[in-house]
Amino acid sequence: MTGTPSDERHSTVPPPASEKYDVEAGDAVHPGRPVTVDRYSGPARFNHWITAASLVLLALSGMALFTPKLFFLTALFGGGQWTRAIHPWIGVVLFFSFLGLFFRFWRANLPAREDVDWVAHSGDLLAGHEEKMPEVGKYNAGQKLVFWSMSGLIAVLITSGIVMWDQYFYPFTTIEQKRIAILVHSIAAVLAICVWIVHVYAAIWVRGTFSAMTRGHVTGGWAWRHHRKWLRELVARPGNGRNAPPHSPAE
Amino acid sequence: MFPPIPNPSVDPAAAKARFSDADLIRRSASEITPPAQRLTEVAKLIDVTKCIGCKACQSACLEWNNLHEEIGISDGTYTNPPDLTENSFTLMRFTEWVNPETENLEWLIRKDGCMHCEDPGCLKACPSPGAIVQYSNGIVDFIHENCIGCGYCIKGCPFNIPRVSKADHRAYKCTLCSDRIAVGQGPACQKACPTQAIVFGTKEEMKGWADFRIKDLKSRGYANAGLYDPPGVSGTHVMYVLHHADKPSIYAGLPDHPRISPIVETWKGVTKYVGLAAMGFAVAAGFIHHLIAGPNRVSPEDEANAERLTGVAPSGSTPSDGHEAGRTT
After folding, report:
1. Domain limits for position B54
2. Looking at residue B127, which CATH number applies to its domain?
3. Residue B321 lies in a domain
4. From CA A224, how far away is CA A213, in angstroms rounded?
């Protein structure tokens, strides 16, 4: 069970001007039954799925070269030579695609006061007591952790990847530097895959999440339950909220 | 003089292969059962003290392996080409060294190329099954049709030997003329050497011959003469006799204590196992959590609260269409 119906009447008041909205472009609430909330614009979703596809392809081709037990995965890419040749290029696609996501999402992923409280109560969340969690904005501390660790890991992966991309960059580094780059690249890749597993699992576990990245919107109940502060900000935003007609335009 | 290697008949009927895939003791990215019987270990001994720098070995290597080195640019030294390439499996490296004890200029000439390590770093780094093999006679060979051109062998090698071709994206290095040795011939470079600075035979024979040479050198004032058969890679199947075996690095950077880099060992060892375990653990944790905690569903109350917040009077019951709103658990 989440918040009581009485307490939200006071909190529909717009937040003070000093408080930052962590509402992103295109986010909008559409009153109705049920309420629907626009969470990701078409270009944001496209950007996300390009990144997702390249990350999966990179994980498959990278794991094939990481351990002999998974070398058979090279068959998916047309053999070992193709896997070796194509992996770095997919990495370039991922880097620029993720850069797009980074500039879209970084502001809403800045740390907020409630993040500390959220992390302290993350055990309650996993145990199914979401009512004990603080109200959070567009992203909770866990999502922010996924965002920032992916940002850092992808920066490390592209840098170390270029050092070991012998076809074009062989003369620029020493063999010892290339050895370090390979070790760093493999460790960062393992961590990135673990972060990705957490990200995918969270989307599966928290039902109603996938529609945010497929159709672009979630239900009001989903927003109320998981990102109530964000929902309140959206409702309190000028041109939205109580007096807005159903399906008002986004901006 | 070391007795010359006989030239057995090259008639295909008479020439029987002395080793084959049945004699592999290591195969890259594969687990194989080594044969019960190991072949006699072979070795090439390069006596640096007898080398006159004629480069007959370099030419013979190009000729036998049908390689064509590009005409490059002289860098002003006798070392030509300036480095090993995918076409030059062997290279005479010339060093002008002033001996601090005698103030004499010594012209050190070392024939560089694959050392055929007993513990081959290239093979251990290789991700492609069967691209690098080691025969029980000690020869480490690249099987080019299995090579994917990743260059991991370059990082694994303690001697900086393999080179990846820009043309076909496969790695190349000295084969120890495995094709010649398989039919009882000596390596091409050894055959071409006019001073017996290169000799070839069993590893035991070569060590014995080296002892003889070292004794001779010591009797002539080279107190530090010795054999280069580095234990850091469990010995090699190409060995050097050096006049200054106490400082191999004066010979154009021959490593003093070669071994597979600990970075490569960490990458191919603990990182691989811990990494796979971490990823497996993350997936398992998700499964178990979902089994125990069940899905996190939006309740009808959540939907009603959202409707109230947006100013629509809640119906008091479940929202009309089941738009993503599951039942409470």
Report:
1. 21-259
2. 3.30.70.20
3. no
4. 18
pTM, two decimals, is 0.89
Has A199 been annotated as catalytic?
yes
| Residue of A13, A36, A84 best to disrupt the B interface, most CBs of B under 10 A | A84
Q: What sign does the CA torsion over A77, A78, A84, A90 have?
A: negative
Q: Give the model confidence (pLDDT) of A141-183 as tens digits.
A: 999 999 999 999 999 999 999 999 999 999 999 999 999 999 9
Residues in chain B within 8 Å Cβ distance of A244: 311
C-beta separation of B1 from B196 below 8 A:
yes
Q: What is the pLDDT of residues B242-298, one digit of tens each?
A: 999 999 999 999 999 999 999 999 999 999 999 999 999 999 999 999 999 999 999
- Has residue B104 been placed in a domain? yes
Containing H/E element for A237?
A: none
Q: Which two tokens stand for residue B148?
A: 């994917």
Residue B271 has, within 13 A of its CA and on its CB side, a CA count of: 22
User: To the nearest whole number, what is the mean pLDDT of chain A?
Assistant: 89
Of B147, B152, B312, the CB nearest to A32: B312
For residue B270, being part of any structural domain is answered with no
Which of A182, A229, A240 has the highest number of chain B CBs within 10 A, making it the mutation to test binding with B?
A182
From the list B201, B233, B241, B212, the residue with the least C-alpha distance to B44 is B201
A138 and A222 Cβ atoms separated by less than 8 Å: no
Paired tokens of A196: 């990705």
B5 pLDDT band, cuts 50/70/90, is confident
| Cα–Cα dist B199/B204, whole Å | 13
Residue B314 lies in a domain: no
The tally of domains found in chain B comes to 1
Burial readout B120-148 (b: 16 or more C-beta within 10 A, e: otherwise): bbbbbbbbbbbbbbbbbbbbbbbbeebbb
Catalytically annotated residue among A10, A48, A87, A199: A199
B327 pLDDT more than 50: no
Q: How far apart are CA B162 and CA A205, in angstroms?
A: 49
- Evaluate whether A98 touches A85 at the Cβ level (below 8 Å): no
Indicate the residue of A74, A193, A219 with minimum beta-carbon distance to B279: A193
